[in-house]
Design goal:
Elements: H1 3-39, H2 42-51, H3 55-72, H4 78-98, H5 107-122, H6 128-131
Helix pairs in contact: 1-3, 3-4, 4-5
């Protein structure tokens, strides 16, 4: 192996490790984000009342966040989980703008969409429709 190929392997390994660290941090964040939704925190219940879809939507959102967090930690599921969480964050962005009429708070979920799409791209080998499987 040449020096340039050693550098490429080392760089690839660094990206791989950085993705796992990012995925672990995102997973922890989303476990904590899902907990109040699933446990019925009064502020969260009130927030979902304002959205107007009913409390089933709070449970659905919390469940999707928790399953996505778990999926981020499973190599075979990391790419699809990142895509799924990007979808949840697109929904959160739309909700902030249209249900809460607060475009300023839509920035955080929008940034998370970009981060999840980057993770999905980095883990694209685990996404069947992108690999032709």
């Amino acid at each position: 192996m040449t020096t340039s190929s050693n550098a490429a392997v080392s760089q690839g390994r660094g990206v791989h490790v950085a993705l796992w660290v990012l995925q672990a941090l995102l997973a922890a964040f989303f476990v904590f984000a899902a907990a109040p939704k699933l446990l019925g925190d009064p502020t969260t219940v009130q927030m979902f009342d304002l959205i107007g879809f009913g409390q089933w939507f709070r449970y659905l959102t919390g469940t999707l966040e928790l399953l996505g967090a778990i999926g981020l930690l499973v190599p075979r599921l990391a790419g699809p989980a990142a895509l799924g969480l990007a979808g949840v964050m697109i929904g959160a962005t739309i909700t902030q703008v249209f249900a809460f009429h607060d475009p300023g708070t839509a920035l955080m979920p929008l940034v998370l969409v970009v981060v999840f799409l980057a993770v999905a791209w980095g883990r694209r080998a685990s996404i069947p429709f992108l690999t032709g499987r």
